[in-house]
UniProtKB/TrEMBL annotation:
This is Agenet domain-containing protein. Residues 15-71, 96-164, 167-223 form the Agenet domain. PANTHER family: AGENET DOMAIN-CONTAINING PROTEIN, AGENET DOMAIN-CONTAINING PROTEIN-RELATED. InterPro entries: Agenet-like_dom, Agenet_dom_plant. It comes from Linum tenue. Transmembrane segments: none annotated. SMART domains: Agenet. Gene3D superfamilies: 2.30.30.140.
Amino acid sequence: MQLRPPPPPEKQKKVQFKFGDEVEAFHSDGWWEGAITAEHSGGKFAVFLRGSKEQIVFEEKDLRLPVQWVKGKWEPRFEQVQREKEADSNCPKEVMKFTQGMQVEVTTDDDGFKGAWFAATIIEPSGEDEYLIEYKTLTNDDDTEFLREDIRACNIRPCPLEITVVDGFEVMDEVDAYYNEGWWVGVISKVLINCNYVVYFKEYDEKITFKQVDLRPHQDWLNGKWVVPSEV
């Protein structure tokens, strides 16, 4: 058991909760981590509690932002995670070195592609902390050859670890979905029959149905190692 002081009221900002938000819900005399799975009338929300694996409807007053006790002070948990991701995405001075022929995934900040990762091969260094890569699924305008592009090292990562999913995914599991030749991060919003799932993409406020074969557990490349959301 771990002890910590109660979070001060002033740390709990007034927020507009919505589907997919990470929250803590007051239940059975304690605060339980979960995620909003549906919005109801009257300011109520259905929350999937990860600890007990049950879905319960709560009033807004019984929800709060997830918080954590970090180095002697309180801060929202998602802000800490976001800072770690931004620290890795802002091209720090020390970036991973890649070798010719290495299989990787790359991302871009271009409109319409935010949050997507595409399989690629390192061709050669093209500048300081920059590499010429060849996509494995994207082709040029006339579809005659695979597209090549110069990518900053901070937008390149090794291929994620393979994680075997034995019992399928559950509601609110964070996943990568293979769509439009790339992997897009989302969350499971509904489990269907025959290993089909509805995935919600928060960045684009869109839901799409996928087969399990086109999904993989989401992982983040943080500080030179792979981390799954449940470990953060």
